[in-house]
Design goal:
Elements (H helix, E strand, L loop, with lengths): L5 E8 L2 E10 L4 E9 L8 E7 L8 H5 L3 H7 L2 E5 L38 H16 L2 E11 L1 H11 L7 E5 L9 H11 L3 H4 L4 H4 L10 E6 L5 H5 L1 H11 L3 E6 L6 H19 L2
Parallel strand pairs: 4-5, 4-6, 6-7, 7-8, 8-9
Antiparallel strand pairs: 1-2, 2-3, 3-5
């Protein structure tokens, strides 16, 4: 049985539309929300779909409001889907006590520790439940999917692709948390969601996953600002770069002079990323 979607709002945009939906989620045990940009080409045919995973504290609205991708997506005929960053309203003790854990900080893992394991199953939601809903309700080509994200969402995009080789035709990230086992954000999230066994953490760390990749993913594009205040302590792109080099995984890591961690940076290079994805998705 197809899960129904409830339309929250809809807005005309570059000949297409931005729409916001809510729905009951089996994976996350409650209501979830997502947004979508449907390009004008979808009026006459199904179009490739590109999933965007946002960072800490963000919602399903952040990308559509700040990312600046709709104009180019309209030109290229790409559907842009952005889920929320965590379940909300679970009522778990401390779920909203910190900005980097709990609400708004699901880290795109499937939690194994109580109480989080009953609701915080963002990997399953992003890779299975949400795509099934998109395919059922929207004019999307399920055989042409790409994924990208920012910060925590960059981590999520890389992990989703690395855990499912062959699933996504294109992958990219802005300032990803690419070695979460080695940085405070990742250690806090993994300890809380996955427990103390750090061997289990490796299945959710892009720098660890790429080392065991049997065949390369499509070429990866990563942009990183040089003035990002989180660069040294939380992001560690050089760890991922070294792991990709050792594994033979094609990676273009661009260090962008003068840019920080926020959406001024993301929106500046959004067109490059959309064209990177379109080259594979529209091939």
């Amino acid at each position: 049985m197809t899960v129904p979607l409830t339309l929250v709002s809809e807005h005309g945009c570059f000949g297409g539309k931005v729409a916001f939906y809510r729905h009951a989620s089996e994976a996350c045990g409650g209501e979830m929300r997502f947004s979508v940009y449907v390009p004008p080409q979808a009026a006459t045919r199904k179009v490739p779909v590109l999933y965007y995973l946002a960072g800490l504290t963000c919602t399903e609205e952040t990308f559509q409001a700040k990312g600046g991708g709709q104009r180019v997506a309209a030109e290229l005929g790409l559907m842009l889907v952005a889920p929320d960053t965590s379940p909300r309203g679970a009522g778990f003790p401390g779920e909203d006590a910190a900005w980097d854990f709990g609400v708004g900080a699901g880290f795109y893992v499937d939690a194994t520790q109580a109480p989080w394991s009953s609701r915080y199953r963002m990997f399953t939601y992003v890779t299975r439940e949400l795509p099934a809903l998109v395919a059922a309700h929207l004019p999307a080509r399920a055989d042409r999917e790409g994924i990208f994200g920012h910060s925590m969402g960059g981590h999520g995009a890389l992990v989703c692709a690395l855990r499912q080789p062959g699933r996504y035709r294109s992958v990219s990230a802005f300032a990803p948390i690419s070695a979460p086992m080695q940085v405070p954000w990742g250690q806090k999230a993994f300890g809380g969601y996955l427990g103390p066994d750090q061997q289990a953490w490796k299945a959710w760390d892009a720098s660890e996953l790429v080392r065991t990749l049997r065949e390369p993913l499509p070429p990866l594009l990563v942009d990183q600002g040089t003035r990002d205040k989180f660069l040294t302590e939380q992001l560690r792109p050089e760890v991922f770069q070294d792991a990709c080099a050792a594994a033979g995984q094609p990676l273009t890591l661009r260090r962008q002079e003068g840019y920080d961690h926020g959406y001024y940076f993301v929106s500046t290079f959004m067109e490059d990323h959309l064209r990177h994805h379109a080259a594979a998705l529209n091939a």
